[in-house]
Specification:
alpha+beta, 155 residues, two-stranded antiparallel sheet, 3-stranded antiparallel sheet, 43% helix, single chain
Length: 155
């Protein structure tokens, strides 16, 4: 006798979770920092990604997609994704946006401007010649206000 609809769905969800966990365990820790906490699967080159819904595929087909992947921790994966989105926006619009949170290019001043959003208001932190310097200024201000907030990780 087969599974009912609900039983089949639970079986598939458990199977997919197990397969993903096994792949991460076999291919971890994080390729960038060596962490073994909050590991995720990352497509090395996002332009080659077919989909992220691969766990119901055959082992052979799944293996082809996973060959394009690496294991990253949550922080490294977030940083890589943010940089990829920045590069994509830059190609589309010809620049202006920053790879850092709280930083943008000021056309009039021809400098990078750092700002911090607090309680729906923007607080100006200064103008900087370097995008990374503006990102660091944002991080210093964030630490004073909320040490647990998202920050730029400048490497």
């Amino acid at each position: 006798m087969g599974y009912t609809g609900e039983q089949a769905a639970k079986y598939q969800a458990d199977r997919q979770k197990r397969l993903k966990g096994e792949w991460i365990a076999d291919n971890g820790p994080c390729k960038k920092c060596g962490s073994d906490v909050m590991l995720q699967i990352d497509h090395i080159d996002p332009s080659l990604k077919v989909t992220h819904n691969i766990w119901s595929w055959s082992k052979e087909r799944r293996g082809i997609e996973l060959a394009k992947c690496q294991v990253l921790c949550h922080d490294c994966h977030s940083q890589k994704s943010r940089l990829e989105k920045y590069e994509q926006k830059k190609r589309k619009r010809g620049g202006g946006d920053s790879k850092h949170i709280g930083v943008h290019w000021d056309k009039d001043k021809q400098m990078w401007r750092a700002q911090l959003s607090e309680h729906s208001k923007n607080r100006h932190l200064g103008y900087f010649a370097s995008e990374d310097d503006a990102g660091e200024a944002h991080d210093r201000a964030v630490i004073k206000v909320n040490p647990d907030a998202r920050m730029n990780i400048i490497t």
